[in-house]
Amino acid sequence: MRGGTRRTCPASLARIDPYGFERPEDFDYAAYEEFFSTYLAILTRRAIKWSRLLKGGAGVQKSMTLKRYIRKGVPLEHRARVWMGVSGAQAQMDQNPGYYLHLLQGEKDDSLEEAIRTDMNRTFPDNVRFRKGSDPCLQRTLYNVLLAYGHHNRGVGYCQGMNFLAGYLILVTRSEEESFWLLDALVGRILPDYYSPSMLGLKTDQEVLGELVRTKLPAVAALMDSHGLLWTLVVSRWFICLFVDVLPVETVLRIWDCLFNEGSKIIFRVALTLIKQHQALILEATSVPDICEKFKEITRGSFVTECHTFMRKIFSEPGSLSRASIARLRERCRARLLAQG
């Protein structure tokens, strides 16, 4: 039956999705079609509103209206422009003409180049646009963006995980230079110290999630504690890859819409929503491998595929999550990590 579906399906249900990713063998075409037919109507309505908001070609200015629009989803045709505007990447690019090309033409760093090359074939093997035989092949574009960033931010250089971020940026912007400046916004400003050699920012935020779970979902925290399980074992990929290759593409892009506009707090909202929604399932676990498996399970299925409903949930399910409370938790968790050495 599935083969028959493929022969007659609309573009949204093709074997390759609109971003070039191959759908898995067990992809539920029927459930996706049911979701997408409703979502398409939402996208169409949003696209008309966005076109009105962005008419005239002026720069994207942060506002409460824009925040509300972004939370409801940015149409793909406007996504690069909106991300560039709200993240500050556009301003950086405008203030530094020619800088990206200058970085690519700079002196060679053999160890940096080797580290990036090693990860090329590991980046989205299930995406037809990143395969060596494809035309055009995005591997060269990805290599350039990562190399330029390694030269630009020598304190970070290149860290595994950045290839997935840059790859998504390239798929959305279709521009090397814009992808570079958006990567700079993520790694340099939105997620400081996530990708530095010590990864202190990343480790801190995983600890912060643990503290938030302890407050908001104490039964899950108690389960983790009873097995001596560190949060890094179950959520590190969520944080390092910003849910890339963890959640469905369209859902990740909706998360990133908010991440570029509202900052890293969004990651906690997503993580808490996933855990809260599946708390009963997680609490069934009786061993460390079982808990790890449950945390993989909660990133699959209709809840995460239906991105519009999912995004509404992340702003209601976790409850209040003020910047001040996150800042206090970060301070406490960072001090604890530094004390541990």
List the helices and strands and how they pair.
Layout: H1 2-8, H2 29-53, H3 64-71, H4 76-87, H5 89-95, H6 99-104, H7 110-120, H8 139-152, H9 162-173, H10 176-190, H11 200-216, H12 218-226, H13 232-240, H14 249-262, H15 265-277, H16 279-282, H17 288-297, H18 302-305, H19 307-314, H20 323-340
Question: How is this structure best described in words?
Answer:
With 341 residues, the chain is mostly helical. It has 20 helices and no strands.
Q: What structural class is derived from the secondary structure elements?
A: mainly alpha
Characterize the overall form: globular
Unreliable sequence segments: 1-9
Query: Which H/E pattern describes the elements?
Result: HHHHHHHHHHHHHHHHHHHH
Helix count from the secondary structure assignment: 20
Roughly what percent helix? 55-70%
Q: Beta-strand percentage?
A: under 5%
Mean pLDDT: 92
- Gyration radius, in Å: 20 Å
Count of beta strands: 0
Q: Summarize the biggest pleated sheet.
A: none
Distance between the termini: 57 Å
Give a quick rundown of the structure.
This protein has 20 helices and no strands. With 341 residues, the protein is mainly alpha-helical. The longest helix has 25 residues.
Key phrases:
341 residues, mainly alpha, 65% helix, globular
